[in-house]
Fold this sequence. Notes:
alpha+beta, 5-stranded mixed β-sheet, disordered C terminus
Amino acid sequence: MEITVRPAVEADLSSLLALYGELNPDDTPLPDGSAKAIWTAIAEQRGRTVLVAVHGGETVGTADCTVLPNLTRGGRSILLVENVVVADASRRHGVGRHLMDAAVELGRATGCYKAQLLAADDEYVHAFYASCGFRPLAQGFRRYIEHGRPAGDGSEGGTSTS
Length: 162
């Protein structure tokens, strides 16, 4: 399977939205105008590269990469990788490995000292990232922020003191 990985362009937007639909099938699809405005903001963001994997003219995978400037490690940046998706029909054909290799190379080319990501809590996902050279070296934490609720209203799932 011949796979090409390249930075996404606006013409890839509908393919990206389809892949994100596979990642989060319960999400309500974005209206076209909103998706285009968000894409414009992403494309203009310094240090941000959305990669796409293409096979036979079809977009079959993506990874969203952001180079974060950093004041530690001699000023070397950190590469944050998010929203890694391979189309269901293209899984187990090397697409994910090509994406992760391209992401790491992007980090290397921009002087990053590490590439970092959070992975779904599935053993096969962990095995995949380990096979790409990533190691589980830290405990990840995540806090979802509910739309429209002020912080501290007790809905965050934290410990209540009342």
